[in-house]
Specification:
Elements lengths: L3 H15 L4 E6 L9 H8 L4 E7 L2 E6 L4 E5 L4 E6 L9 E7 L5 E6 L5 E5 L8 H4 L10 H8 L6 H6 L9 H11 L12 H20 L40 E5 L2 E5 L6
Antiparallel strand pairs: 1-6, 2-3, 3-4, 4-8, 5-7, 6-7, 9-10
The structure holds a DNA duplex (12 and 12 nucleotides).
Length: 272
DNA sequence: GAAGGCCTGGAA
DNA sequence: TTCCAGGCCTTC
């Protein structure tokens, strides 16, 4: 379940690895993961140089010459792996990028196939809605701006944090972890929180994300680094995946409740 | 604003 | 064998 820290980690590794490289060939073995025509991708990108790699929300962008951008979303189980292709048909491999003069290639795998890949040019209109409507990055807004975005909402804070149109990058893990660190119950409705609490939440989100990035993200099921390594932030989770275990703060048992179709983990004592 | 659907591997 | 995990979109 790659969220902002996992994507950020991969982006840094990709930038290091393929910036300046020329794409010689694209091998697409499952067209259904593409939301742009296969021919457009293969024809327009072949022979183009990667300028840099960036992140927007949970999306990865390979920026090529001529304003061409190849976007990846990893969904839940998407992986980008830099490797020499050994097994001819690696399981669930859908796409491979081959670069001039490189023995290793960039593979996109995704067992559950919630991920997607598409091509955009410099025109905003060439981006899907999911990107165009993306909210601001957590690190790029102030606590006050955060409070203005969320403060008048009447829904549950946890559900709202998952809404990428309000703010981009959080998923189930970091929403739960940030709420715990801010001492806010996931069921709370933001219009009933004061500005101080909202600003504290924004600070918790930024701190949690930065700490997770420092630890290479959380590797729970499928997430791995470009070289196959794992993140270690899961060792520092306070609530996510810890149902029934004791809260590190007060010893109360961590609870899990369904909310907005997914589970929320929290400490009933520390999060009021 | 809730619920269903996509999709598969792993646990119960 | 059934259920569950969840990113995000569509439908009610």
């Amino acid at each position: 379940m790659p969220e902002l820290p996992e994507v950020e980690t991969l982006v840094a590794q990709l930038r290091e690895k393929i910036s300046g490289c020329v794409l010689s060939r694209i091998v697409i073995t499952r067209e259904s993961i593409l939301s742009s025509p296969k021919e457009a991708i293969t024809k327009k990108l072949s022979g183009k140089r990667v300028q840099t790699v960036k992140r927007r929300g949970k999306f990865i962008r390979l920026e090529f010459e001529k304003d061409l951008t190849l976007w990846f979303h990893l969904g839940m189980t998407g992986q980008l792996i830099w490797t020499e292709e050994r097994e001819k048909k690696a399981l669930h491999q859908h796409l491979a990028l081959v670069f001039e003069g490189k023995k290793d290639r960039l593979l996109f795998r995704d067992s559950r196939r919630f991920g997607e890949v598409f091509l955009a040019n410099g025109n905003i209109a060439s981006l899907p809605q999911g990107v165009r409507l993306l909210g601001p990055e957590p690190f790029e807004i102030s606590g006050n701006e955060f409070a203005s975005i969320f403060g008048s909402r009447k829904g549950r804070i946890k559900s709202l944090l998952l809404n990428q149109r309000l703010m981009a990058g959080l998923g189930n893990i970091y929403a739960d972890e940030s709420l715990y660190r801010a001492g806010i119950n996931p069921k709370k409705r933001p219009h009933r929180l004061n500005r101080t609490a909202l600003m504290r939440l924004h600070e918790s989100i930024c701190l949690t994300l930065k700490e997770a990035i420092r630890h290479g993200g959380s590797s729970i099921d499928d997430y791995m680094h470009l070289d196959g390594g794992r993140g270690v932030f899961q060792k520092f989770h306070q609530v996510y995946g810890r149902e029934g275990e004791n809260c590190n703060g007060c010893g109360t048992k961590i609870r899990r409740v369904p909310l907005a179709g997914r589970s929320s983990h929290f400490c009933p004592q520390c999060q009021k």
